[in-house]
Structures are given as C-alpha cells and as structure tokens.
Amino acid sequence: MERTKFSLSEKPLEAYDGDLLVYCVYQPKKGRLRCEHKAVSMLINRSRAGEEFKGKEGEQLLIYPAMMTGKVALGARRLLIIGLGKKEKESDRNLRRESWRKVGGLAAKAAAKLKAADLAVQVGNDPKLSGRELTECLTEGILLGDYRFLKYKKMSKKDKPFGGIETVRFICSKVTTSLRKGLKSGENGAQAACTARNMANEPGNGWTAADFAAHGRKLAKRTGLKCRVLNRSDMVRLGMGGILAVNQGSEEPPKLVILEYRPSKKAETLLFVGKGLTFDSGGVSLKPAAGMEDMKYDMCGGAAALSVMEAVAAEKPGVGVVAIIPATDNMGGRAAVKPGDIISHYNKLTSEVINTDAEGRLILADALAYGIKRFKPSCVVDLATLTGAVIIGLGHHHSGLLSNNQVLVERLIKAGKRCGEPLWQLPLGPDYSKQLESRVADVKNTGGRAAGTITAACYLEKFVGDTPWAHLDIAGTAWNFTDKSYVPKGPSGTGVRTLLELVRGWKKGGL
Q1: Dihedral (C-alpha) 454, 460, 461, 464: value to the nearest 10 degrees?
Q2: Which residues of the chain have pLDDT under 70?
Q3: Which of 62, 169, 320, 504 is the most exposed place for a label (fewest CB within 10 A)?
Q4: How many alpha carbons fall within 13 Å on the CB side of residue 389?
C-alpha cells in the first residue's frame, strides 16, 4: 500500500466524519469515569458497556455514534475510547512514552479489525510529556502497529485483506511547529523500522547479499547518500578471511555494503555494523531441522544498520554516520569451511574455526576492523542475532549489550529506554577471553557453552582496538520480541530506533 499520510488539525472532534475516531481517557482515582469532551462523555454514558469501562490502561470501548438514541454531536462512524490508566500512577518519562506508543498500536489494531482506512486521534495531554513527544510516540505506535507483509499472499477480490491505514489526522487544540516535528520524527523512525521488517520477512531465496547491495544503491540514489559495495575479489585483495570463509559453501557471492552520510560541516563519525547473514544453515556444523526456517532472520542486524540510514538521510544530523553490512549466507556446499580450519582476518589475526555455526562473529570481525581503519569513527556499534545464549539469559525482553566504554553503554541504554527497546549490560574481561585461547592459532571462534554471549563479544573485541565499541546481541528481540500492540509476530525491526536515538542525542566532543 501507499505510505500512510499524517496531518494535524485544529478542527473540533465534531467536524470529523471519517471511519474511526480515537479518544483517550484517564482512569479516575475513584468513582465514575469523567470525560472532558461533552459529546464523548454523553456517548460513554449512553453505552451499555459504559458502566463497566473504567479507563484502565489498554482498556477499550467501541461505540457507533449513529446507532445511539437521542441527538448525537459526533459525525465519526465509530468512536474508540482507549484507557490510559491513572494519570499519577507512572512517573517515569520513558514508560509514559511507551504507554502512548501502545495506544497508537491499539488504534492501528482496531482500524485493521474494522477495516478503517481513515483514522483520527484526539491528542490530549500528559503531565510528563510534551506535545511533541505525544505525537512522536502516537505516530510510531500507529505505523508500527499497522505493519503487514503481504508480498507473497494471493489476493482474491472476495477475501482481500485490509491494506492498511491510509490517512491519520491528529486533532489538537493548536497546530505548532513542535507537534509537526514530533510527527515527522515518529514517521522517520517507524518507517525505517518497517523497512527492516520487510527485509527480514523476505525468504532466504528472496533476500540475498545481492539484494542488500541493490537496496543500498537504490537508497543512496534516492537520498544522496554514498554507497560502495565490495565484492569477493575486493575481499580477497583486502584479506577478509572471515567473510570469505563463511561464504565458501555458498553459490551466492558475498557483499560488503557501505553507506555513508556526511553533514555539510566537518564532524565526528558514528559507525554501525550489522550482521547480514541472509540464511544460516550452520554450515558443516549443521543446525537441527526444527525451526531452521527462522534462520532467514539471521540478517536482522544488517537490516537494522541499513534501514537506519533511511532515517538518517531524512533528518540530516550534524554528525556523520556510516553503516557497514557484511552479507552472505552460511551453507554447507562442497567447499564449505570445516571445523578445525584456520583462517586469517582483515587485521591479520588468525582464527581456528571450532564451530562453523559460530559464523556471525567471523563476518563481523572483518567488517569492524575494516570500518574502524577506514573511517576512524568516534564510536562503533554492531548489531547481530549472534547467540542463542542471550535468549537463555534475557529471554525475548532485553537485547544483550557488551562494550569497552561505559559512557557509550549509558548512551545506548538511555536511547533504548526512550524508544521502548530495552538493553541489558553483560560483562567482559580477560577471564572470559581466556576461553577463546587456541593451541594452533591466535584465537578460536568459540569458547564453549558457558557464557556464550559474552565470549562471542570477546571475539569481536579483538577487532576494535581502543575505539569505543558496543555490541548488541539481538537474537532474542529481532523476532518473537515481547508482545506489544505495535510489535507484530515475526521480525520486530529492533535496533533501528535505538541507533537513530543515539544519533539524535549525540553531543559533540566524543566519549
């Protein structure tokens, strides 16, 4: 479908005559629900369910104004009342942001159920948030909650599924520049996250390394970014033995996709590196068949790093941003890398491949070392669906965070909280690195089952030197993320908005 069109309006609720009007109410401290808008209050009181509706957080009441007895002042076909809970209950600013994001998701889900293509939302007030934050979070929730992937679904005229919300109107007392900025920033972040979801939803035969490269080139052409793609011959010349080794068993050649944004004035550079493993069979260390179809999602880190550049290009921040995506699949063809093989990375470090299913760190290592040497960034953040161990430790609720710089850790945690993508820091250190010691090479690519998420990060740490670096293990959140109204089943697009928040909040002067 076409991109959803958003607008701001000062016209009263009564003037809206579209498909679905959304109105939010707080739960009273005690007694019956009170609503500031007279017509809405009247409709709630007339509704049979009005007495049961308390305005608890997430509670919903759907009313058809035209079907109510007596004179009705509202022209909307449907009125959806959504409860916000008690106004004084939650004081945390980020949790309030998340509440409004969830409201947007609930509105989108209701629109889908009712097949309402036109939506209006009354922008109320929140004592903890500005109007800009309200419109930003509502916009994010609506766009993320309205997401669907129908590319491969056969459409029949009789049972044609709902195509999505076409127009959204925010009704406010006064249209301001601040509200417009909030709407735009919400659009930028959510649209980029949906782009990442689209990539991840593609099957392994529908999204290859070549598709990563093609998307990067198209995005650069459309937005003015700079795109460069390294091919296999370039990797051989540069000595990127990690990417080449993982790709040995594949018929699809590898790509290293590089997207650059440079502001008009000289500035620092932030480097994002995303694992672009388009399908992971495990290679010779073959994965179990059960659930292997989900390994098309092993490129979610690469999808996030590439997609955030879409928002960066739209917002043109004052800091430079570079995204690098090492892209390949991991197959067990006749030339596949074998357990016990020794490879040499871009920085000349040799690695004994103990397990070919620990391939993500091999491709990230080359990309990290190359990106740091070439772009000399102020910091580097990599994202990867790297270990199953992080799911055992954190479930599907937090992404793992490991870093060599505590200031960068705090900035990322703050960014994650602000956009509803929580991170949890895990330790690093020489005791964990010892698990990677090899008898025949500089390092080995696994440290055993114990502390698997940490030792994977210890491997990557060997390729960043003194550069401030953070690793986000999103294996538990890239899909099957915590159930929320704005997060669908399947890929979540996690990481995109966290990185965007980091860029938005970046202060000159480094770490």
Answers
A1: -160
A2: 1, 48-50, 69-70, 89-90, 508-511
A3: 62
A4: 16
Tokens of 452: 């698997």
Measured CA to CA in angstroms, residue 369 lies from 103, 271, 447 at distances of 43, 11, 21
* Known catalytic residue at 361: yes
Q: How far apart are CA 466 and CA 455, in angstroms?
A: 18
Q: Which structure tokens are listed for 236? A: 């051989």
pLDDT score, position 144: 98
CA distance 493 to 504: 18
What are the distances in angstroms from CA 385 to CA 49, 161, 322? 45, 32, 20
- Give residue-wise pLDDT tens across range 91-127: 789 999 999 999 999 999 999 999 999 999 999 888 8
Read off the tokens for 421: 């993508």
Which among 89, 200, 257 has a CA at the least distance from the CA of 496? 200
Which residue among the candidates 128, 180, 287, 414 is catalytic per the annotation? Answer: 287
Within 244-386, strands assigned E span 255-261, 269-274, 276-280, 320-330, 342-344, 350-352, 379-384
